[in-house]
Amino acid sequence: MQLRVWQDARELYIRIWSVFKKFPYELNHISSQQIASVDSIHRNITEEQFEKMDALAYKLESGLKKLIESIQSKQANNDWDDSFIIKESNKLYTTTAD
């Protein structure tokens, strides 16, 4: 499985390369910088990195869903203790007209 974003980055590299290779020799330095910058995009994206990030995102999402379900269950069963909730005034966040 290849990442779609990686495939798009490769396609962008090919298109940029085909445009800049036609530049005159005097602009060779500029064109080579552009090609190198586009080339680095797909090289910095690896499936291994994506899979690790995806696994972490899934783990976080699952944990948050379980937390929400637990809170909703406690509230439904009247087993919710809100004594730890900080209650503050909105005065701190309002502006007054001079």
Question: How would you describe this structure to a colleague?
Answer:
The chain is an all-alpha fold and 98 residues long. It folds into 2 domains: 1-45; 46-79. It has 3 helices and no strands. The chain has helices at residues 4-20, 28-43, 47-76. The longest helix is centred in the middle third of the chain and has 30 residues, at 47-76. The chain is elongated, with a radius of gyration of 26 Å.
List the SSEs and their pairings.
Elements: H1 4-20, H2 28-43, H3 47-76
Helix pairs in contact: 1-2
Spatial separation of the terminal alpha carbons: 62 Å
Main beta sheet: strand number and arrangement? none
Q: β content, as a range?
A: under 5%
Total separate domains: 2
**Rg for CA atoms:** 26 Å
The unreliable regions are none
Helical stretch tally: 3
| Count of strand segments | 0
Overall shape: elongated
Structural class: mainly alpha
| SSE pattern, N- to C-terminal | HHH
The percent range for helix content is: 55-70%
| Overall average residue pLDDT | 78
Jot down its keywords:
single chain, 98 residues, mainly alpha, 2 domains, 3 helices, 64% helix
Summarize the structure.
The protein has 98 residues and is mainly alpha-helical. It has three helices and no strands.
